[in-house]
Amino acid sequence: MKLRFTKMQGAGNDFVVINALQQPLTLTPEQIRRLGDRRFGVGCDQILVIEPGKVAGVDFSYRIFNNSGAEVEHCGNGARCFVRYVAEHGLSDKRSIRVQTLNAVLELHLRDDGRVTVDMGAPRFEHAALPFDSSGLCANSRNGFELWPLEGLNCELAVLSMGNPHAVQVVSGDVDAAPVLTLGTLVEAHRRFPRKVNAGFMQIVSRSEIRLRVFERDAGETLACGTGACAAVVAGIRLGLLDECVEVHARGGDLKIEWAGLSVGLSAPVFMTGPAQTVFEGEIEL
Question: Which band of pLDDT confidence, cut at 50, 70 and 90, is reported for residue 142?
């Protein structure tokens, strides 16, 4: 079949966006992998499929697939590209829209400067939300927040969910020198995370600025990870290292993350603001 698509990127995290509003679309894992392949397909980190809203009060739904073919729960950079796509294709004249993903409803706001702010919802810290098996492990506490060692790895991890699982470690030096490809692979697939995990490597620049690299579950290192930026900032705030508003420098661009969890309660939502751009549009035979 011939499939129309739009290639988009948010801080270097790139997506193939497909409009399935008019008729249902089912793609096999093989077709998803073909779309995501940078040599034989379009090439992207993830595929976003836009669908009609399925519940009252929701404008749209969309599904998120890694380029490996697996469906995932959440993607912050993808959410920004989603609202940019909706605006550019005249699918809604609203500046704020509500969308449903696999396990959440998000509120997205298109700003006058072209950036997008996403209400990412509240972080979750209970281990079942990831899931994370901590049985038999002994955590170290910093500022009342737990850092967990893993068998066989020389690191301590802050674990939390932003609708998808994250394990964040603070690196002592330049994050560019961190062993993201080797250690990230080991953290992602560690037996303590039955559904795998996104592995974040955070360098603290100041109380309002970090540098971040993320080895994403089933995708490898990407140029940016929206939920990973949220998870890193939340972890840094809980560890007493960061203030409530933080600039996150990823390899593909910058994101602003805001969380007031220590002042108003841990159930406060995380807000992410960043860019989203269309790269090109086209058609592919699958």
Answer: very high
User: Please, what sign has the CA dihedral across residues 154, 259, 212, 82?
Assistant: positive
Q: Which helix H or strand E contains 218, and what residues bound it?
A: none
- To the query of whether residue 225 is one of the catalytic residues in this protein, the response is yes
Give the span between the Cα atoms of 48 and 32, in whole angstroms. 10
Residue 19: predicted pLDDT: 97
The distance from CA 254 to its chain's CA centroid, rounded to whole angstroms, is 14
Q: Virtual CA dihedral for 26, 29, 30, 33, nearest 10 degrees? A: 110
Q: Is the dihedral of CA 235, 122, 192, 183 positive or negative?
A: negative
Q: What stretch of H or E contains 79?
A: helix 76-88
DSSP assignment string, 148-211: EE-TT-S-EEEEEESSSEEEEEE-SS-GGGS-HHHHHHHHHT-TT-TT--EEEEEEEEETTEEE
- What is the β-pairing status of strands 13-19 and 46-52? parallel
Q: Which residue of the set 44, 155, 225, 230 is catalytic?
A: 225
> Which residue type is seen at 265?
G
Q: Is the pLDDT of residue 103 over 90?
A: no
| Cα distance between residue 277 and residue 266, in whole Å | 32
- Which of 75, 81, 155, 230 is an active site residue? 75
For residue 44, indicate whether it is catalytic. Answer: no
